[in-house]
Automatic annotation (TrEMBL), chain A:
Membrane spanning residue stretches: 12-32, 136-156, 200-221, 233-258, 352-372, 379-396, 447-467, 479-501, 507-530
Native source organism of the sequence: Cyprinus carpio carpio
Membrane topology label: Multi-pass membrane protein
EC id: 2.4.1.-
Protein's name in the database: Alpha-1,3-glucosyltransferase
Superkingdom assignment: Eukaryota
UniProtKB/TrEMBL annotation, chain B:
UniProt protein name: Alpha-1,3-glucosyltransferase
Pathway named in the protein's UniProt entry: Protein modification; protein glycosylation
GO MF term list: dolichyl pyrophosphate Man9GlcNAc2 alpha-1,3-glucosyltransferase activity
Keywords for the protein's UniProt record, in alphabetical order: Endoplasmic reticulum, Glycosyltransferase, Membrane, Signal, Transferase, Transmembrane, Transmembrane helix
Source organism of this protein record: Cyprinus carpio carpio
Lineage, highest ranks first: Eukaryota, Metazoa, Chordata, Craniata, Vertebrata
Length: 545, 506
């Protein structure tokens, strides 16, 4: 047919997809942007007009610089182009400055920085096996490209809400692709650069550490896949160490020389926040909170608890950051207990130790598994997703946006095996829906629904085509759960605002959303975890390597 | 992937881009005292809601016709009335008589945009999908690609969701009419087209091909016998539909006359602003507007329009099939646009609709035309503050449609429908490669349009000619349209007996 002509011979479809999504992003330039826009404008201004020694001390705006130094240098570089658009945005005291030229420049900077992401996706596609002669829409590389480039979360978080995730995920995916291509030094370098761009990626560092040590520093395995101790290569370890350390040296060196390291670290890890964000991320703590609330209500009703003795209910529309639990143990006190055991190991303030401890203990089997049966790049990727998802599930003060760290790498697995495709569908649909409260303006309501449907329909239909043989990807229960999101959305954003409760309990829809989504995310996490522990390594090994 | 998912993805892409364009400014935003088309539509809601029907089209103490008086047919007025009821429910301030004049707020903008989206989803988008599903040749992917290109046509999106109008209603109804005729449901088709005509009088541009197609079909069936019977049924449908639409105005003979007077304001002159048609372009050389009397102008425009419509209409009359019908629609609406009296720059959308319908058959020329039509509205779009969506949607349409329809590969002489023309000219110009020439012209014209877009935005016009760039834009687009009308007439009149078009005949 006619369509086939330009599509099979070359990679032109890739450019069409990339160009198409870029045009869409450009149309969103005038959409709503959150305070993150001002955050990044402020960083542009302060890196441009202050000496390096002032960067991490400047506090005119409440949005102080809290990303690692390389990102600050990135902003510094951008600021030199920004002055061609509007010099006023580079003045630190110009708080909340958002002239049309400023908006245009900042939005364009995100769109252009996504070129890194495009390149990374293209490299990731090279790691996939290709079925030749297949219809374009059924090709794994085509599906993967759409799942990544047109990812709903990235579109709304970066191009409406405003952040630079596309660029950062570009670096991450590129590093993953390099590992798949057995270019481990480059991969390690890219990842250490990434850590110095945004430190949230520390969550997946364990996966990297174990994988590189096990699969790269040990050059050989026994016939059954277990470790051969004698094959350890010191040279490789030294080179890896040098790469990582020198990256950190370049990034943090100047601040160490200035004696500002404690100040920089205190900006990077502000531990004064509560367990949950204002809007609960759909993780285990959302379920914990709601269980606590339910117990306290039941307790009061059946006169088991005295209402006066309960701590002041802190469910006041998420305005209070610290959520005090009424019945179940409050997390911070418990944390102090655990921290006494661990404080020597991990030198961090008290309250967070507990969550970190939970994460580490949960990840331990996963990391153990990858150590014993490395299963190549696939196993590494799976472990990486588990790390990201585990930290999302149990982390301290997690943002709902952090889920993208699991979804994007999981897309790579989804086009490769039908089991992962099912998990991906569950996780992506629920967690994308949980991003809805990010955009609360009426103007953006249609666009988020359209984009969500666009991505969901595509992923459902394409993965179904890809794994045509072997029955449905989702079981009836999962389908019912996902369909439940439709009435949930109708109630939360269309029906509830018309009711009288909107004034008295404005937070109820948010709570409902995060609890409902938490169920799906938890379910996906458990399934992923089981699949990691049970997957037989030798059979599926062939694909990613 | 299944067809339904492909089609729904394509609709969602169309909807997303539409709503994203609607974030931008609208005509006359914050520009008292007259504002723009947005205020006109809001004002009509106010008038229709608060005044009795017989006052709608008359100048009364409560209805100042000089301030955006109703000048569209009754269906538009009814549509405004329905919108007004919803508006009243949401916020009574929006339609309060007199007090709401020039009302602007963020939530009102959202409401107005939502009404456009609603009618679009209800009328235009399903019509496009059905058209592509039934009448596009090729695989299902080809159908979806065509639907996507039609839905992403920037001109319509920018005018409806940027500038603010309800063109998707009238064009959508006309498309339903075309669908009806194509499927052989002549009565349904004539009903839909009559509704379109009663929504916007500019649909007259399409009326002659509709008439000729139906008449030609009846003649084929034999005017004495089944054909006559069919013709009577069609006429009855049209008359009844008209009567129903005009019912409230039929009690008093003064009423319909006043409505007609409002619909065809001959007093407003040969053309307004800068339009890419013959008269405006000629006016640069000869001041026809002042040289000729109003009557001469009227006669001249009428005669020339008729002259340009006649060949294509006669051809359609003798050969009423869908392919001929679509080409006749293009030719007729282009002739009206280029030569008729009182033309607006937005009227090019009427020609763009039938061109959209041939985008699968003659991709390169259709894409070229559609881009030119968007470009011809540049001065208007810049005035409305729609430069960014203009640039983005035009570029997106250019790349996407060239890619999806493989327009550049599908431009041999045969595919450009110039085979017969080539045979005729081979005698004199043996070494002419029409396909290559057209491709070069295409790129050259794109560069020219891009350059002119760029200069008219970034450069200050010389003080002597403040209107320099709008005039250049309209002249350049006029030359294009002149070329297009010649091309489409050639294609229609020289149509050889081809199997492909035979297949689609009903």
């Amino acid at each position: 047919t006619v369509m086939a002509a330009p599509m099979t011979n070359d990679q032109s479809w890739f450019y069409a997809l990339a160009l198409g999504v870029s045009f869409l992003k450009c149309l969103l330039i005038n959409a709503y942007h959150s305070t993150d826009f001002e955050v990044h404008r402020n960083w542009l201004a302060l890196t441009h007009s202050l000496p390096v020694s002032q960067w991490y001390y400047e506090a005119t705006s409440e949005w102080t610089l809290d990303y690692p130094p390389l990102f600050a240098w990135f902003e510094y570089g951008l600021s030199h182009i920004a002055c061609f658009f509007d010099k006023e945005m580079l003045v630190v005291p110009n708080l909340n400055y958002a002239s049309p030229a400023t908006v245009l420049f900042q939005r364009l900077s995100v769109i252009v920085a996504d070129v890194v992401f495009f390149y990374a996706v293209k490299e990731c596609c090279k790691c996939l096996r290709e079925d030749k002669g297949k219809d374009l829409l059924g090709k794994p590389s085509f599906i993967l490209t759409v799942l990544l480039l047109w990812n709903f979360g990235l579109l709304i978080v970066d191009h409406i809400h405003f952040q630079y995730n596309g660029f950062l995920f570009g670096v991450l995916l590129l590093s993953i692709a390099r590992h798949c291509q057995n270019r481990h030094f480059e991969g390690a370098f890219l990842f250490s650069v990434l850590l110095n761009l945004k430190h949230i990626y520390l969550y997946i560092a364990p996966a990297y550490g174990i994988y590189l040590l096990r699969c790269f520093c040990f050059t050989q395995s026994n016939a059954d896949g277990s470790l051969q101790w004698r094959s350890f290569s010191v040279v490789r370890l030294v080179i890896l160490g040098t790469i990582v350390l020198s990256t950190f040296a370049v990034s943090f060196g100047p601040f160490i020389a200035l004696g500002q390291l404690p100040q920089v670290l205190s900006r990077l890890f502000p531990f004064k926040r509560g367990l949950c964000h204002a809007y609960w991320a759909p993780n285990i703590w959302a379920l914990y909170n709601i269980a606590d609330k339910a117990f306290s209500i039941l307790g009061v009703k059946f006169r088991l608890l005295d209402i006066n003795k309960l701590p002041k209910a802190s469910m006041t529309g998420g305005l209070v950051q610290e959520f005090q639990h009424s019945v179940l143990p409050s997390v911070s006190p418990l944390a102090t207990l655990v921290c006494t055991l661990l404080s020597i190991l991990v030198n961090l303030p008290n309250s967070n130790i507990y969550t970190i401890f939970v994460i580490l203990s949960l990840l331990q089997p996963a990391l153990f598994k990858i150590w014993h049966r490395p299963n190549g790049a696939r196993g590494f990727l799976r472990c990486l997703v588990i790390c990201a998802l585990g930290s999302f599930m149990f982390g301290w003060h997690v943002h709902e946006k952090a889920i993208m760290m699991a979804i994007l790498p999981l897309s790579l697995l989804a086009v490769d095996s039908r089991k992962d495709a099912g998990i991906f569908l569950m996780l992506s649909v629920t967690s994308h829906y949980s991003l809805f409260p990010l955009l609360f303006t009426t103007q953006e309501l249609p666009i988020k629904i359209f984009l969500m449907l666009l991505f969901t329909i595509f992923s459902l239909a394409s993965l179904k085509t890809l794994f045509r043989k072997g029955g449905a990807l989702l079981n009836p229960l999962e389908v019912t759960y996902l369909l439940g999101l439709i009435p949930l959305e109708l109630i939360c954003e269309f029906v509830y605002p018309l009711t009288v409760w909107q004034k008295t309990f404005p937070f109820l829809p948010l709570m409902l959303t995060s609890v409902y989504c938490a169920l799906g995310v938890t379910y996906a996490f458990i399934r992923l975890y089981i699949s990691l522990l049970t997957c037989s390594d030798t059979t599926k090994k062939t694909k990613m390597q | 992937m299944e067809n339904w998912s492909l089609f729904s993805l394509c609709v969602l892409l169309g909807l997303t881009s539409r709503w994203a364009v609607s974030f931008h400014s609208y005509s006359g935003a914050g520009k008292p005292p007259m504002f723009g088309d947005y205020e006109a539509q809001r004002h009509w809601q106010e008038v229709t809601y608060n005044l009795p029907v017989h006052e709608w089209y008359f100048n009364t103490t409560n209805n100042d016709l000089n301030y955006w008086g109703l000048d569209y047919p009754p269906l538009t007025a009814y549509h405004s009335l329905v919108c007004a009821y919803v508006a009243k429910l949401l916020n009574p301030e929006w339609v309060e008589l007199h007090a709401s004049r020039g009302y602007e707020s963020h939530s009102h903008k959202l409401f107005m945009r939502a009404t456009v989206l609603f009618t679009d989803i209800l009328i235009y988008i399903p019509a496009v999908l059905l058209y592509c599903f039934y009448f596009c040749d090729g695989s299902s992917k080809q159908k979806v690609a065509t639907a996507l290109c039609i839905l992403l046509y920037p001109g319509l999106i920018l005018i409806d969701y940027g500038h603010f109008q309800y063109n998707s209603v009238s064009l959508g109804l006309a498309l339903w009419g075309i669908l009806g005729l194509g499927l052989g449901w002549d009565l349904f088709g004539s009903l839909a087209f009559t509704l379109a005509l009663n929504y916007k009088q500019m649909e007259l541009y399409h009326s002659l091909p509709f008439f000729c197609y139906l008449l030609g079909k009846c003649i084929k069936q034999g005017l004495i016998g089944r054909g006559f019977f069919q013709l009577a049924k069609i006429s009855l449908t049209v008359l009844v539909t008209f009567a129903l639409c005009w019912m409230p105005f039929l009690s008093d003979p003064k009423q319909p006359l006043q409505v007609l007077h409002r619909l065809f304001p001959f007093g407003r002159g040969l053309f307004e602003d800068k339009v890419a048609n013959t008269w405006c372009s000629l006016n640069v050389l000869i001041k026809i507007k002042t040289l000729l009397s109003r009557e001469t102008q009227l006669f001249l425009s009428f005669a020339l329009t008729l002259l340009f419509i006649l060949p294509s209409s006669l051809k359609l009359l003798s050969k009423p099939n869908l392919w001929q019908f679509k080409l006749a629609l293009v030719n007729s609406s282009l002739a009206f646009f280029l030569f008729s009296f009182q033309v607006h720059e937005k009227s090019i959308l009427l020609a763009a609709l039938p061109v959209c319908l041939v985008i699968n058959e003659i991709p390169l020329i259709a894409i070229w035309f559609l881009l030119t039509s968007t470009f011809s509205m540049l001065p208007l779009l810049v005035k409305d503050g729609l430069l960014l969506p203009y640039v983005v949607t035009s570029l997106a349409f250019l790349f996407l449609s060239l890619y999806l329809l493989s327009a550049l590969e599908r431009s041999t002489e045969e595919e450009l429908r110039l085979g017969l023309y080539r045979k005729l000219t081979r005698h004199w110009l043996p070494k002419l490669n029409l396909s290559r020439i057209i491709k070069w012209k295409f790129w050259f014209s794109l560069v020219a349009m891009a350059a002119l877009s760029f200069t008219s935005v970034w450069l200050e016009p010389p003080a002597k000619f403040p209107d320099l760039f709008p005039v250049l834009v309209s002249i350049l687009s006029f030359l294009h349209f002149l070329g297009f009308i010649i091309y489409f007439n050639l294609v229609q009149l020289m149509e050889p007996q081809r199997k492909k078009s035979q297949k689609k005949t009903n």
